[in-house]
Specification:
- The chain is α+β, with helices and mostly antiparallel strands.
- The protein has two domains: 224 residues, P-loop containing nucleotide triphosphate hydrolases (Rossmann fold), CATH 3.40.50.300; 123 residues, RNA polymerase II/Efflux pump adaptor protein, barrel-sandwich hybrid domain (OB fold (Dihydrolipoamide Acetyltransferase, E2P), Beta Barrel), CATH 2.40.50.
- Helix content is 24%, strand content 34%.
- Strand 17 and strand 18 form a beta hairpin.
């Protein structure tokens, strides 16, 4: 008997092993009803294994998975209130659009009437903006249209949870951006739980309301996209999510002073640290986002490093600069159209000064758990 729960999906101490290989280790995760969660991480981090365990294609080696309060261990995929959109869509090429979308409805028992199937297929196609495409063959559809057919086939059964296994990976950048917006809109209209697996940081941050960053089978950080980006829990998250500059240093005097590799020192009192903990004495890494760096031709108050621009990359709305600083290494600086990049572009070979506001720096111990 299902128990009432405010969560659609719960992982309770879930571990998944393949022989001697541990793909997922002691995962505890709650996904609330109607959430849009992104499982984000590099290849082999365990995110797809988690998705497949929700869908019933894999079973946990230890722990339990619950959907809508009901334990799912041992429950077959076709008996779960879950549907999945695969990376390559898995559409039937010999069926037209209507037949593809209706396939799951025709397998339901007790059988649905033809009129009911036709009505629900029409509703699903309207939701993904494919009205009038019911008779179209799959090979006659564009990549974006095929993706929407796969979505319609997944939602027509009215699942409690929709699983998305890198569904935009095969699309070009412009179409991928358009489909990100369509997926967000569809999720809000349907009000069902979406779980997206992706290795694309931009995709996760732009689409999901909650991001779960994974590495080596474990959760490194769970939170809202802005929290993940602005307040990374550790150096892995800071490095993996977005771009970051790294400065190696040594924390001294009870962690109040940071001694940089070039011999200069700066106070650590105003700098944020991973997990909100104090900075211990010893080797640390300072992480700073490129857009937080300030670049000028003259030294400004506060911490400043003198360097030389080695590359300039114009990207339209922003310009990226690579700056080599003796003793500290290479830095990436992002300037927007309203800043120096638009009005007075710095050229490769010029000397510049780099600085940053103290609150923009995140300080992490070199030894991560």
């Amino acid at each position: 008997m299902a128990l009432t729960s405010s969560n659609d999906i719960e992982f309770r101490s879930v571990t998944k092993k393949y022989g001697a290989l541990t793909a997922v280790s002691d995962i505890n995760l709650s996904i609330s009803k109607g959430a849009f969660l992104a499982l984000l991480g590099p290849s082999g981090c365990g995110k797809t294994t988690c998705l497949r365990m929700i869908g019933g294609f894999e079973q946990p080696s230890e722990g339990t998975i619950h959907i809508a309060g009901r334990e799912m261990n041992g429950v077959a995929a076709y008996h779960r209130p879950v549907n999945m959109v695969f990376q390559h869509y898995a559409l039937f090429p010999h069926f037209n659009v209507e037949q593809n979308v209706a396939y799951g409805l025709r397998q339901m028992r007790p059988r649905l009437s033809r009129a009911e199937i036709s009505r629900r297929v029409g509703e699903a196609l309207a939701m993904v903006r494919l009205d009038g495409f019911a008779g179209r063959r799959i090979h006659e559809m564009s990549g974006g249209q095929q993706q929407r057919v796969a979505l319609a086939r997944a939602i027509v059964n009215r699942p409690s949870v929709l699983l998305l296994d890198e569904p935009l990976a095969a699309l070009d950048k412009k179409l991928r951006t358009a489909m990100q917006i369509e997926l967000q809109t569809l999720q809000r209209e349907l009000g069902i739980t979406f779980v997206l697996v992706t290795h694309d940081q931009e995709e996760a941050l732009s689409m999901a309301d909650t991001v779960c960053v994974m590495s080596a089978g474990r959760i490194r950080q769970l939170g809202a996209p802005q929290e993940i980006y602005d307040r990374p829990a550790d150096l892995f998250v800071a490095d993996f999510v977005g771009k970051t500059n790294r400065i190696e240093a040594v924390a001294e005097a009870g962690g109040t002073v940071l001694r940089l590799a070039d011999g200069s020192a700066m106070s650590s009192s105003a700098h944020s640290t991973g997990g909100g903990a104090g900075v211990p004495n010893g080797k640390v890494t300072i992480a700073i986002r490129p857009e937080k760096m300030r670049m000028s031709r003259a030294a400004a108050p506060g911490p400043a490093f003198k360097g030389r621009v080695t590359h300039r990359i114009f990207l339209g709305s922003v310009t990226e600069y690579a700056v080599a600083v003796p003793g500290l290494g290479d830095f990436l600086v992002t300037e927007d159209r309203n800043g120096l990049a638009t009005d007075n572009m710095v050229s490769p070979g010029e000397e510049v000064f780099l600085g940053f506001p103290p609150e923009a720096a995140h300080v992490f111990p070199v030894q991560q758990p």
